Amino acid sequence: VRVSTPEERMAKTAAIKQASEATMSISALRTESSTAAKAILSSGVDTLTSLSTALSTAAPYADISSAESAFVAAIGADVEKSNDVVDGLYVVVRDALVKAIANIRVLEKFIGLRVPQMEDGNNFGVTVQMMMSKLLKEKREQLSTSLSDTSKYYSSRADAIDKFNHLSKTSKVQTMSESTGKSTGGKDGDSNTASSNTSVETKTSTSSDKIDAHRVKALAALDAQMYCDLKFALEGMVDDYLIILDNFEKNMDKLEHPRGKSYGGYGSGGSSMVY
User: Any alpha helices (H) in 172-264, and if so which ranges?
Assistant: First the structure.
């Protein structure tokens, strides 16, 4: 039987120590993730209350026709001014979407780090983890889509405003000219001359002196559509957040300890060693 050398034993000891330190580091990250997730869950009801209050304040119109009528009146003769109601709701909703997406990612990480090592049997808790992870992923992707869709509002509004014919259109034309010449037989002998000139012409034009009422309604309809999209996005987010909180409350034991608190496998919440 071959006896290992002192160098080999030292190398093996170092490898075991390194593996232990890596395991301890992952264990610390798992604990950190658990703390962050539980903080989100414990403040969940307060978060929902805050979002509902913000929505009722920022979204004063109950239906799209009321919003549209109010927006037509607000536009008046100044089609280029911002829609204050939509602007305010835009900020509230998009900030809420970003925060919710970030929180869901924390919860996804929490579950991912609690998945135990693969073994035969006793996997019902793991199935619960997988189902919850699937739910979180679906909700996060829906929120991300809402965030992306709402970002197009100002571009669409700018295009709608640009179609008003009564607004003056300004263009600038820059003209440059250069000339060279040569004179001979002067007092100082032959000489070359050169000159350049630059002129800028500004033109302002309008196609009509009258505001197009139909385009005013089109702009108001665009604002009202975004108002409803934002309102529905936040209402949907509140509902989804409530469903997530409810599922965590009902299944927290399985999510945190999928094979029971006494199980010692990696990722179980018991021993962090892999056997």
Answer: 213-256
Q: How far apart are CA 101 and CA 136, in angstroms?
A: 10
How many beta carbons lie within 10 A of that of residue 36, not counting itself?
15
Phi-psi label, residue 238: left if phi above 0, alpha if psi -120 to 50, beta otherwise: alpha
Both tokens of 235, joined, read 């209402």
CA 220 distance to own-chain centroid: 26
Query: What's the pTM?
Result: 0.74
Per-residue HEC secondary structure of 36-102 comes to HHHHHHHCHHHHHHHHHHHHHHHCCCCCHHHHHHHHHHHHCCCCCCCCHHHHHHHHHHHHHHHHHHH
Per residue in 221-264, pLDDT tens? 999 999 999 999 999 999 999 999 999 999 999 999 998 877 76
Neighbours of 114 (CB within 10 A): 22
State CA 163 to chain mean position distance: 30
Residues 115 and 227 sit within 8 Å (Cβ to Cβ): no
pLDDT by residue (tens digit) across 18-36?
A: 766 655 588 888 899 999 9
Q: How far, CA to CA in Å, does 264 sit from each of 131, 141, 273?
A: 23, 34, 8
| CA gap 268, 116 in Å, rounded | 5
Whole-number Å distance between alpha carbons of 164 and 217: 12
- CB burial class (10 A; 0-12, 13-18, 19+) of residue 215? middle
Chain centroid offset of residue 196 CA: 53
Sign of the CA dihedral running 239, 240, 246, 249 = negative
Q: Name the 3-class secondary structure at 198.
A: strand
